[in-house]
Amino acid sequence: MKQIITSxxxxxxxxxxxxQHDKYVKAxxxxxxxxxxxxxxxGLRSLSDAFLRIAEAEKTEWLxxxxxALCLTTMGWIDPKTDMDxxxxxxxxxxxxxxxxxxxxxxxxxRNMAATQQMLVDPQNRWGTxxxxxxxxxxxxxxxxxxxxxLIYLQGAALFNTPEQFGGGKDKAxxxxxxxxxxxxxxxxxxxxxxxxxxVAEQMLQQAK
Length: 209
Description:
- By secondary structure, the protein is mainly alpha-helical.
- The protein is built from nine helices and no strands.
- Helix content is 78%, strand content 0%.
- It folds into two domains: 92 residues, no CATH class; 63 residues.
């Protein structure tokens, strides 16, 4: 009898875990599909909140925190009215929560972009602080994963958008963009893992040729 009860308990626990996982997969799939068609600041804020709710329900998953942060980062790029410091503060908090579960190169890509957005508010006066923070995030990310395509793309994009007189330009960016595209092509997708950046990297590479 004891063996039967134990077996039934295991079945119930396994069934509950499977149902919870299926719920997570469904929720993540729906929100990630919405990211492809959401281009407004309000929509991105709403999606960020939706990913955060998933993260708070799934205590062992870093990806919902990551995508919550990515939505806010995207908002920072498209909306010039964004308070970059306040927005970056939220992004970094989400990155900290994701990293507490699994510290990885993808999270450092988000940290790099958040600090870059803060630096671009006033490059001349903020380079020493937020520029250095962005550089440090890039360094740590590449130490974890040297061939991460998003980090390499961000390196290339930074040079692409930096004037030649300050050490940037298309010629300087081209080798990194080529490396990024090659890394994107070699990437083996995992469920829900980041895959953004390839299309823009390819476009920049074409402009650099």
